[in-house]
Amino acid sequence: MEILLQQIINGLVLGSVYALVALGYTMVYGIINLINFAHGEVLMVGALTSWTVIQLLVDVALPGWLKLLISLVAAVVVCSVLNFAIEKVAYRPLRNAPRLAPLITAMGMSLLLQTLAMIIWKPNYKPYPILLPSEPFVIGGAVINVTQILILTVTAVTLIGLMWLVNRTKLGRAMRATAENPRVAALMGVKPDMVISATFVIGAALAALAGVMYAANYGSVQHTMGFLPGLKAFTAAVFGGIGNLAGAVVGGVLLGLIEALGAGYIGTLTGGVLGSHYQDIFAFIVLILVLTVRPQGLLGERVADRA
Fold this sequence. Notes:
The protein is mainly alpha-helical and about 300 residues long. It has eleven helices and four strands, in the order ααααβββααααβααα. The strands form two sheets. It has a two-stranded antiparallel sheet. A hairpin with a 2-residue loop joins β2 (about 135-140) and β3. α2 packs antiparallel against α3 (about 65-90), α2 packs parallel to α4 (about 100-120) and α2 (about 40-55) packs across α8 (about 190-220).
């Protein structure tokens, strides 16, 4: 029972990180029908930026939580500027091109960001310092720490904030209008280019937040660290229903639970043939099953028919 509870906690924490990244995927897809495969690398840039800022503050007498907050703000700023530039330079010129062109561009941008990060930060793994209290809390025999509680809380608050932004603000109405029909929205006074850029900036902020939380939880950063979480977050977005904010969170949390429970019990279920290091296969099994059985995802797909 203790193992089950521990794996559920691990799954919720991991799923929350996937959910934060999946929200960025689903917002961009909902507006312009583009899968931004460079989104995982934005997470990586956020984590490495945070690590760099913390190294600069290592001799400064500040509380650990304040150093983490300062590094998070720096990561959000850098990632927002980066994603804004990516959209303007790589995606905007291809907005009316066949869908394959921006997809290939996104993959190329992913590789480009990985290479640039390797040049800037070097390819070796770097330990991410422990800045928050590490004393664990014991719940029913399972262990959870302050960083994990923070990840769960931040994900919940972020979803609530995004739902409010999309449904209750002027920018949210502009986003929904642009998703419905960008040409008609432009005739009604909406500036589609500005809305799309804002969506990419918001997605970058979410990726930076996820990158810092991921690094703080797992304790290391490296130039390829964003590839697998980005791919799994895309799976989570498809699982929940890409284009649906609540679906991205549900898909991320469920995928994290499936992966954690699978890692905890795969050895028992296979008689020791497979170990916990095979946990990555569960994400892609889920992706195959969802695309085969329910391609629109668990909560459906909110993508407007274009005139």
